[in-house]
Amino acid sequence: MAEPGRTVRVSGLPTDIVDEKLKDKLFIHFLRSRNGGGDIDSVIIDKANTPVSALITFEDSRVAQRVIQRSRHVLEVDTKKYEVIVTEHRETLDPDKVILKLSATVDCSELPGGALTLTSLYKSHPDIQIYYDATVELYILHGTYSKVQDALAQLLSDPGGPQSAEDSGQPAATGSTSVQIAQEPHTQESEDQIRKSNQQREQREKVYTGRPSDEYNSHRDLTPGGFGWEDTGQPEGAALHGS
């Protein structure tokens, strides 16, 4: 990884010269003080980008700034002269190293497939965590920046999921409806179990509404291996990781 402040990018290089020879010519050119150069740490030919360029890292950042400020650099190779362009090199940031964790709140009532859409979403993105917050009747996706972004992209591109409510003939789930994320594909039997579980939960909520014990049911982990929609026994806001 090139060090910021000491590395420059040189473009406009000849393409018919072997790498080692080209590196030697670049080293000599940018080592000379008359070209604004100085002591060099490394010369790397970068073929990842088109056209080919080179990354030159100096020992002193002031030398790097000096060669950048020079208006013209002419590289001489086998009696041929090539005018090259020197610019400051900036590393591409890795989003996952800058944004360590990302959470997204999803209103499943806006999705054609309702909350059941999250079942297929988790199967495609097992590295993210999916929670249900009963206090606001919304779902929370949590994980690394890139994985949550990928999951959200899938959610928006295929909001109905592989088995939408319309296709399955079942009522569409809303943001307040509970759903268990399972590792196996949904069958008619599993859908019946989900509806039964929902009915039981609604009855429990009617009985226990307003009691302090409701705090233990406000957040539930939807990932496989979790306790689903039963009382987890965890404090409010606690997350259970799927197996």
Automatic annotation (TrEMBL):
Residue ranges of the TM segments: none
GO molecular function: RNA binding
KW RNA-binding (keyword) present: yes
Signal sequence extent: none
Keywords: RNA-binding
Record field: compositional bias (Basic and acidic residues): 186-222
InterPro entries reported in the protein's UniProt record: Nucleotide-bd_a/b_plait_sf, PARP14_RPM_1, RBD_domain_sf, RRM_dom
Ranges annotated as biased composition (Polar residues): 165-181
Region listing for Disordered, in residue ranges: 156-243
One Pfam short name: RRM_PARP14_1
Statement: the UniProt record of this protein carries the keyword RNA-binding: yes
Listed GO biological process terms: protein ubiquitination
Domain of life: Eukaryota
Occurrences of domain RRM (ranges): 6-91
Protein name listed in UniProt: N-myc-interactor
Organism: Larimichthys crocea
